[in-house]
Amino acid sequence: MTPPPGAAGLSRRSRILLVIGGVALVVLLAGSRLLDYYVNWLWFGSVGYRQVFSTIVLTRIVQFVLVAVVFAALLAATLAVAFRSRPVFVPVSGPEDPVARYRTVIIQRLRVFAIGVPLVIGLIAGLAAQGDWQTAQMFLHSTPFGTADPVFGMDVGFYAFQLPFYRWALNLMFVAVALCFVASLITHYIFGGVRLAGRAGQVSVAARAQLAVLAGVFVLLKAVAYWLDRYSTLLSSSSDNGGVFSGASYTDLNAVIPAKIILLFISLICAAAFFAAVFRHNLQLPSIAIALLVLSSVLIGAAWPAVLQQFVVKPNANVREAIPIQRNIEATQAAYGLTPDKVKYQDYSGRTDATPAQVGADTATISNLRLLDPSRLSKTFTQLEQRKNFYGFPQQLNIDRYKVNGQVRDYVVAARELDSSALTGNQTNWINQHMVYTHGNGFVAAPANQVNSALDDAAAGQGGYPNFTVSDTTTKGDIPVSQPRIYYGRLITDYSIVGAAPGVPPREYDSDTDQITYDGKGGVPLGNLFNRLVFAMSYGEQNILFNGSINANSKILFVRDPSDRVSQVAPWLTLDGDPYPAVVDGRIQWILDGYTTLENYPYAEHVGLGDATADSTPGVPRLPNNTISYLRNSVKATVDAYDGTVNLYAFDEKDPVLKTWMKVFPGTVKPSSDISPDLRAHFRYPQDEFEVQRQLLTRYHVNNPAEFFSTVSFWNVPSDPTVLDNGPNPTPQPPYYVLAGLPGQQGASFQLTSPLVSLQRPFLAAYVSANSDPGNYGHITVLQLPTDTQTPGPQQAQNQFVSLPQVSQQLNLLKQNQTTIDYGNLLTLPVAGGLLYVEPIYIERANQESSFPQLARVLVSFGGKIGYDARLDVALNQVFGPGAAAQVTPTPAPATAGAGPTAPATGTAQAPAALQGAVTGINGALGELRAAQQSGDFAAQGKALADLDKAIKDFQSANAKPH
What we know:
Number of strands: 34
Structural class: alpha+beta
Largest sheet: 7 strands, mixed
């Protein structure tokens, strides 16, 4: 058909302008992306992981090109066939026929539509597909697990690496065929192959043949989908099985999987019917085939499994689901590292009648009782060890262990970092912000089981402060550091430009009298004008281009958060939310735990990673709530705080997922043998992995399917008792790092611990501990308490603490003195056959910007007996009697305004008469003081304070005498 005369066309000038406009648009859209690619190319080269970047980019490009070409070719072929098979004569309904106008426009711009439409669709498809580069690489480099699934006998690696790729490719083919069908239908309609005139319309032979072939291919793809659906039944979540277990249920095995096979054959028959329609002159056979497929999908695919579930499974679910539940238990334990070789279950009496000698003999735990809570002391570290306003500490500090003077003890540790957000005034001008204040300075630690007697003067009678040991550029503490400067940390968010020309005075702030020039190997060179131009454009900052201090030796430091650096070089890892600093071989290293995860592990329980790792720990980023069914702490990563060097170490070298990624990025992960002994000594069992495991242990400590189905032996993770307003969905109590002993264990070990309570009950059911010592790393001990007795859990212990009259009385008095009360972590520790609860209490001046927490009291509970004092040894002796705390280093009592020494709590060991009399005098004076404060009677307050002073002296005198 020829276009009507006078049809408008584009002039040569218009075409040139359109081309120029198109090129400009592409440059604008792609320019920023190319700029980012070049910046990343430079950064990956600076850290020695350019292979990672190039592999990812190349994979994306290949996937983009392949998918774009396939989609464009299929669509172009479809359009070509439809156009070439159009009817020669097409009747026109009238001069205003809209289809005729579209037909004319297409013929006038035939190349635009024939090439442009497939090209645009191909580009969109390629862009959508290139993001799944991890799926393709895992398929290409898959590693077998050596474990077969119990239904089909397929290796677990098939579900982990191959099945996701097949699904991805199949979904793309579904979309491609559907697009071709729609494009074919529209083309035939426009060119008259499909007409809607008349009651039934008309379809040309060519149109019917092409549409039938495309529909047949689509149904064939559906047959392939039914084949893959069989394997997917093993990956169903517990929500699909009534919330009981994950994996293929009895109904899946006996109805759903057979139904998929039947539907597969029906799909093949339907596809054959569509292909047969190519040679027939009507669509009756394909119509019957479609009706058959829909009907069979309803009856066989949905109704049959529903009937079986309702009338066969539900009445006898405990018997019918026994085998699937057993498979679920075994698969979950294997997928999350909870197999018998890694988890040891041990009966524990939970006794309440321990003697002072028995408690004192438990030196591994009693001598290391932790008083300092790392989640409460950030402000204390900041106020006492910040030094300058632009230094800072993260909200959540960390616990690690060090050997000092021949003794291993746990420390609260933190790096004194540059806090980019704390710069103020002239410090925020561009030169100071990016070229002067460039780094932090120092490693700060405090023994976790000690507080000092006074901040500045022991005679002042103040206490409750950490006993700091600091290693920086001016001091060498108990934990010496050879390079204390910190250029890479969690608080440093801005870029810095470092390096100076020879003979130029250093400008980077190191102290009030000293400036330095960075000489580390970190950073991207800014020595050439092109790189300066690139970074000026990237940051939108012209000073990078025109500042005269930037020279051939200058480098720019960026991506400075340790987590960001590791996630860039190992995007296949899921990182623990809490990196921690450690002094390793004299240098400050950030240590990070990297997890390999899978969504497809047959029969394993599905876990929402973000939900499972959510707790009340402040300042720790929550992990993305990805659904996983497999978890391994397969990589330990380090980031040097001075030069930013990133090292990845294979920690679980047997992990098939890690092996797969090591094939994808060869040489990027170092073998476990490269881990130095000093580094290995600071590895901690990761908190996020432990939280996932303890949630699973609440159910998967049960190995009997019938008992599992009844849930009678299930446990719960306790809510955090120190969170006063926990709401209807209470926040779980976080696990805690402690240096302590375990029953049957020689000496103390560094552990991550958590109590577990009975299902929907507050009583203690178990105590879980994961060992972090190099010789026994990763072994989990579960102490199971008797079920015929009730041991108070954390919430009950906290209720006993705060409801004790002496405790509530003094805490209320502190609050009246414009002081806030903060409960520290409630530790649960096995001691002398029972469970010991220890909780520090911190006080802080209210509404004071410069205030910070001070350890004021310690609460101790064992078997319902409670101790409460400013000194841990006194509180322990109140509970167990004299001699129980012989291993505890006494710490002088802090003199808290309006408070004073405390009486032995109700239910504790009996005190001598003189001591009891002094206690009575203290309590009476405290009551008088409170009444005087409420009435505003200053004279009465003075008398009460005098009485309190006399009572305190009597108490100290009586307490000093042997009894």
